[in-house]
Amino acid sequence: MPPLASAAGSLLAQFFVALTRVRHPRPIHPHGVALAGEMRWLGASASGISWIDEPPAGAVAVRARLSRSIGVPAPLPDVIGLALRAEGSAGPVDIAFASTGRARFSRFALLPRLSPSAAWSSTILPYRGSHGPVLLAVRPLGPDDLPSDPEDIARRLRTTPWRLRVYAARPRGRWHPFADLTLRAEEGTLDTGRRIDVGRHTPPGATIAPWISALRDPSYRSVQGRSGARG
Predict the structure, then answer these.
(1) Which of 54, 81, 191, 210 is the most buried (most CB within 10 A)?
(2) What CA–CA distance (Å, rounded) separates 122 from 107?
(3) Which domains are assigned to the chain?
(4) Would you say which domain of life the source belongs to (predicted)?
(5) pTM for the structure as a whole
(6) 46 with 177: CB under 8 angstroms?
């Protein structure tokens, strides 16, 4: 395990534990919208990750949470987060997206957005497949005028589905679409206490580089342990 990544991961965990004391139970992404829907593959791919490349028969049930990362009041811009859980025969697959650019370098930079409708979002950190590292991303297809406030988003998405396309790419390569997402706001609730765990519930055929686990996992464990909620 790389010493520098381990040291940075430990510092991040301490920071998020301290932040949790002020913003309990979620130090970031404090307010969100609970979503549910389905994911349909577009066809076979060649990413090197079997979960992407081998389409399942029919749609896959998904649950998601759309949130504003820092939690600044709407309509101010914020980094948009989308936490996704796709069900599968081998267990759940958890993926976390955040609003970024889509070009070769901006895909690694967090970018605030006014609305989820404008938020191209990526995983920022890559998975490892049989052909090398792979990034995932989502692009909204419609509606193109979603509001920025979570309560307003929930009201809109209870009557109008949110459609997104899912992509895969090498870190500096072209984006290739492989699936479509359709999400609606869950009835009877605004937010959800469910959490995902991207370190444990990786897509079949994908692994995570040790330096990424060392950097990210301590924060996940510390925050989720203190909140009493698991993925």
Answers:
(1) 81
(2) 7
(3) 32-207 (2.40.180.10)
(4) Bacteria
(5) 0.84
(6) no
